[in-house]
């Protein structure tokens, strides 16, 4: 009996991750990411067309807190060699960047391909391959050609074909060397966030139909691009494609909110994933029902969530080779109180679900209050996806930590990456999830959308006042490169490598990354043995 108790106590500890084997599975890959508008600059070189950020921030510079824009940014259009060198110094297996639609197609449409635009990505891709770094290419990362926005952007159903035209051209240019593709980045932001809040370029605020038309059109655009690749490029090049979803992990605020929380997961993650990954295809049935009833109550003769024809359902279903997961934060879900109107989805709640989203007061913050630090959320999110989508293989395509402080000694970021990676290891080793790689957002500080240059996510800092845009590695860059080199979170003497970056008067990082985990493990062992000793004593 005692023996059984002891064994179960030990296995509990093991499951709890205290004594986790910190090695990553063989073949697990590490990368870092950026996106075109956020790093390239060169907004007006040769024949590049204008995207929504170019046009909106030029005509309305006060939109960004520090009055800045991406005209020059990190100047990666000219400094790409340095970027490749940084990726090499980190030991990255892959570098995820995005192609600018209006750089390749100046008009937004396939009537003209920019020779210089095409050349730029050729140089970057070849430069990476020469260093043995795999290019992972996103086709669309928030930078819509202005011409297409003028025609209604993501709410115009024709955008699916316009995106497919663009995708085919990019595949033709680079599919011989690029084997991993992301069609579209974070539709939850593009559709739900942008249309519900209207506070991000293109600043369109329309909560009724906007998010849902966009939702459907994004799925169709992705599906058409996937099928073009599948039919015309995969037989020869054998690459893989996905769409980068960014579900926030949702936990119930209390036991009675469990059912509501699962609905909220289906409203966020499910609405963007079920049509592609589920065995039945189409919208999550629970959400379809809620939206139909809610729309009826509002007087609409149809659901605000547009239906799929059978043909559309079949077009979208199964258009994946892996699940691309961007993940940053978590929320608690509770039912709205009487007379409480939930704020906009997905930052505050959902009127349709009568649900409110909250941050657990015990969670730590980054310098962006929205991004509460909740590492356990990534493990639960991975398990939810695994269970719902038949053990789909998952590539984490973004995860990262924001600061306003440009300091190179960024222990907060190190702790964040280590804690999230530990939960990913648990998802792999304890939950049997098929996670194939991890990506830090971001390789370097860059133009963080509406926050301009005030918010920093970089493993490398960038001096935006320097004409050369000098890049310097932060402590987190040394930490991450060591994790990659050892293929493990168990890395020797991590803090010594970046001691020189420490400024005076900074709070010291008391223990190195892994010694902390080791200490936990040892303490728990001592605790268990003492418990066993007491048990034996009392039994006698
Ligand atoms: C490009 O934009 C910059 C401002 O960012 C401006 O100084 C420059 O003259 C423009 N170049 C051309 C060719 O229009
Ligand atoms: C999921 O897939 C991975 C990799 O193929 C495999 O190792 C794991 O056992 C699978 N898990 C389950 C629960 O099927």
Give the helix/strand layout.
Blueprint (H helix, E strand, L loop, with lengths): L1 H15 L12 E5 L2 H4 L12 H8 L16 H15 L3 E5 L2 H4 L10 H16 L3 E7 L5 H5 L8 H16 L5 E6 L1 H11 L12 H23 L1 H4 L2 E6 L3 E4 L5 H20 L7 H13 L12 H7 L6 E4 L3 E6 L13 E2 L4 E4 L5 E2 L6 E2 L2 H13 L5 E5 L12 H19 L5 E7 L18 E3 L8 E3 L1 H12 L7 H4 L15 H27 L1
Parallel strand pairs: 1-2, 1-14, 2-3, 3-4, 4-5, 5-7, 6-8, 7-13, 13-14
Antiparallel strand pairs: 8-10, 9-10, 11-12, 15-16
The structure holds 2-acetamido-2-deoxy-beta-D-glucopyranose (2 copies).
Structure characterization notes:
By secondary structure, the protein is an alpha/beta fold. The chain folds into 2 domains: 1-22 and 490-540; 26-262 and 374-485, Glycosidases (TIM Barrel), CATH 3.20.20.80. Helices cover 44% and strands 13% of the residues. It has 19 helices and 16 strands. It has helices at residues 2-16, 36-39, 52-59, 76-90, 101-104, 115-130, 146-150, 159-174, 187-197, 210-232, 234-237, 258-277, 285-297, 310-316, 376-388, 411-429, 475-486, 494-497, 513-539, and strands spanning 29-33, 94-98, 134-140, 180-185, 240-245, 249-252, 323-326, 330-335, 349-350, 355-358, 364-365, 372-373, 394-398, 435-441, 460-462, 471-473. The strands form 4 sheets. It has an 8-stranded parallel barrel, surrounded by 5 helices. A 4-stranded mixed sheet has the order 6-8-10-9. The longest helix has 27 residues, at 513-539. It is globular and about 85 Å long. The structure holds 2-acetamido-2-deoxy-beta-D-glucopyranose (2 copies). Residues 44, 71 line the site of one 2-acetamido-2-deoxy-beta-D-glucopyranose (NAG). Residues 44, 71 line the site of one 2-acetamido-2-deoxy-beta-D-glucopyranose.
């Amino acid at each position: 009996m005692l023996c059984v108790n002891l064994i179960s106590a030990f296995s509990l500890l093991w499951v709890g991750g205290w004594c986790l084997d910190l090695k990553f599975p063989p073949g697990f890959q590490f990368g870092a990411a950026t996106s075109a508008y956020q790093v390239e600059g060169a907004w007006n070189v040769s024949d590049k067309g204008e995207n929504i950020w170019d046009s909106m921030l030029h005509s309305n510079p006060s939109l960004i807190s520090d009055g800045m824009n991406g005209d020059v940014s990190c100047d990666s259009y000219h400094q790409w060699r340095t970027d490749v060198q940084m990726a090499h110094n980190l030991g990255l297996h892959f570098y995820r960047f995005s192609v600018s639609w209006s750089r390749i197609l100046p008009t937004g449409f396939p009537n003209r391909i920019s020779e210089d635009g095409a050349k730029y990505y050729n140089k970057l891709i070849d430069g990476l391959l020469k260093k043995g770094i795999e290019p992972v290419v996103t086709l669309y990362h928030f930078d819509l050609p202005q011409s297409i926005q003028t025609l209604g952007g993501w709410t115009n159903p024709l955008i699916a074909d316009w995106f497919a035209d663009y995708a085919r051209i990019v595949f033709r240019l680079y599919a011989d060397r690029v084997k991993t593709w992301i069609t579209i980045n974070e539709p939850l932001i593009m559709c739900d966030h942008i249309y519900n809040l209207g506070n991000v370029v293109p600043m369109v605020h329309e909560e009724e139909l906007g998010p849902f038309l966009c939702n459907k059109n994004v799925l169709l655009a992705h599906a058409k691009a996937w099928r073009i690749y599948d039919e015309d490029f995969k037989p020869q090049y054998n690459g893989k494609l996905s769409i980068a979803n960014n579900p926030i992990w949702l936990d119930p605020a209390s036991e009675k909110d469990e059912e509501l929380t699962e609905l909220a997961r289906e409203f966020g993650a499910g609405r963007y994933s079920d049509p592609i990954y589920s065995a039945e295809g189409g919208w999550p049935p629970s959400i379809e029902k809620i939206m139909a009833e809610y729309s009826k109550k509002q007087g609409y003769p149809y659901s605000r969530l547009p239906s799929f024809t059978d043909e559309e359902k079949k077009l979208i279903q199964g258009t994946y080779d892996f699940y691309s997961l961007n993940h940053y934060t978590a929320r608690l879900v509770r039912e709205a109180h009487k007379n409480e109107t939930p704020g906009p989805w997905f930052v505050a709640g959902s009127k349709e679900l009568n649900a409110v989203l909250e941050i657990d007061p015990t969670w730590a913050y980054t310098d962006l209050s929205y991004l509460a630090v909740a590492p356990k959320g990534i493990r639960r999110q991975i398990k939810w996806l695994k269970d719902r989508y038949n053990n789909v293989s998952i590539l984490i395509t973004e995860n990262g930590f924001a600061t306003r402080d440009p300091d190179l000694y960024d222990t907060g970021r190190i702790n964040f990456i280590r804690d999230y990676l530990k939960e990913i290891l648990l998802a792999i080793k304890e939950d049997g999830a098929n996670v194939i790689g991890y990506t830090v957002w971001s390789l370097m500080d860059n133009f963080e959308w509406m926050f301009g240059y005030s918010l920093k996510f970089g493993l490398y800092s960038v001096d935006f006042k320097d004409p050369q845009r000098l890049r310097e590695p932060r402590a987190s860059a040394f930490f991450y490169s060591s994790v990659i080199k050892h293929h493990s979170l168990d890395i020797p003497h991590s803090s010594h490598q970046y001691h020189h970056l420490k400024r005076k008067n900074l709070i010291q990082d008391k223990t190195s990354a892994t010694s902390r985990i080791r200490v936990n493990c040892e303490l728990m062992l001592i605790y268990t043995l003492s418990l066993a000793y007491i048990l034996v004593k009392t039994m006698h």
